[in-house]
Amino acid sequence: MPGTVKPVEFCGSALADLRAFPEAARREAGYQLDRVQRGCDPDDWKPMKGIGAGVREIRIRAADGAFRVLYVAKFADAIFVLHCFQKKSQKTNREDVDLAAKRYKELVKELRS
């Protein structure tokens, strides 16, 4: 339904991690999540199929570096933010991918029960 805003839920430490972003990156993340809540795509994103079906990565470039917000919006109840982190190298850190995949699996299990 147009005009419907899906709530955002944060898994694990994702909200605290997002709050630790520098102000400009935090604002941009909030704006992009708002777009997703309203049914639009973020301005800069890519699918993260290796983590789970429907997982996407919002890419944020700020003066302080590159930041990422991994989320899944395919479920009816809410948009689930799996992980937020600062990207330190060209390739996404294995620990960040593993953590998001673990949270995705836990989320799917929880939603099925």
Structure commentary:
The protein is an alpha+beta fold and 113 residues long. The protein has 3 helices and 5 strands; from the N terminus they run βααββββα. It has helices at residues 14-19, 23-37, 94-112, and strands at 8-10, 45-47, 55-62, 65-72, 79-87. A 5-stranded mixed beta sheet has the order 1-5-4-3-2, sandwiched between helices. β2 and β3 form a beta hairpin. The protein is globular.
List the main descriptive attributes of the protein structure presented here.
single chain; 113 residues; alpha+beta; 5-stranded mixed beta sheet; 5 strands
How are the secondary structure elements laid out?
Elements: E1 8-10, H1 14-19, H2 23-37, E2 45-47, E3 55-62, E4 65-72, E5 79-87, H3 94-112
Parallel strand pairs: 1-5
Antiparallel strand pairs: 2-3, 3-4, 4-5
Tally of helical runs: 3
The largest pleated sheet is described as: 5 strands, mixed
Shape: globular
Strands of the biggest beta sheet: in what spatial order? 1-5-4-3-2
H/E series: EHHEEEEH
Query: How much beta, percentage-wise?
Result: 25-35%
Distance between the termini: 27 Å
* Helical residues, percent: 25-40%
Query: Measured on Cα atoms, how large is the radius of gyration?
Result: 13 Å
- Number of DSSP E strands: 5
- The SS-based structural class is alpha+beta
Low-confidence stretches: none
Instruction: Summarize model confidence as the mean pLDDT.
Output: 94
